[in-house]
Design brief:
- This protein is α/β, with parallel strands linked by helices and 252 residues long.
- The protein has 2 domains: 128 residues, Rossmann fold (3-Layer(aba) Sandwich), CATH 3.40.50.2300; 111 residues, Winged helix-like DNA-binding domain superfamily/Winged helix DNA-binding domain (Arc Repressor Mutant, subunit A, Orthogonal Bundle), CATH 1.10.10.10.
- It is 40% helix and 20% strand.
- The chain is built from 9 helices and 13 strands.
- The strands form 3 sheets. It has a 6-stranded mixed β-sheet with strand order 1-3-2-4-5-6, sandwiched between helices.
- A hairpin with a 4-residue loop joins β8 and β9.
- 35% of the residues are buried.
Length: 252
Amino acid sequence: MRSASEGREATITILLVEPDREMARRVEEVLAAEGMRVIVAASREEALSHTDDGEVDIVVLGLNRSEGMDLCWRIRERTTAPLLVLAEDGMAEATLARGLEWGADAYLEKPFTVRIFLAQVYALLRRIGGFRPGHAGQLQVGGLAINVTQHEVMVDGEPVHLTPTEYRILSCLVRNSGRALSHRSLVKQVHGYDCDLDEAKEILKVHIHNLRRKIEPRPHHSRFIRSVRGFGYMFERRRYDREELDRTLTKP
């Protein structure tokens, strides 16, 4: 492990996983020049070792044709930090789409400019900035209002009583709104321990059911807490129900 900005005060930590050493050096220099702390992982094992303890704010993952998308999945299983994929020029569209389905938040195809790279990094930081610990976090979607800092949840102006576990689940989903969290990752953040997939699903099943019953306009047609089949859950910040959105998109 090495840090390009050791000895400097930095509020943002980036984990950079890039098999191309020259590309890694250039990306590291760009991020360090922005005052960010950069951890460069030289191997898959080293990369995964930095994703279990909340050490990083963003993961930048460089992929080439010989590097499978399974690393994207394995990273997402261990951290909710935004994941930016740097894709080799000409990678198949289906491969890139699978990366997004498996937890990547965005991707850039090489080569790219410094301007567009930094724009992506700062866009991801803005996305989590309002809901990171220590920041005032407020969200209102339709009749649902959540104040993460004050631990308050309101539906149509009326306070909603949540159990401590329900609140921790909702708070975690809200801080990562728009991004799927795996069952195991969610349990680890809420309860502080790791478990296998089946146990994680069972732990969450009842709590998610009760959360939906308390905050959803139609609990059996969830608007806010969406199940991501085979993976976990995500909180969606959208103005319209999925049916309305789908109709808009499919109109001739």
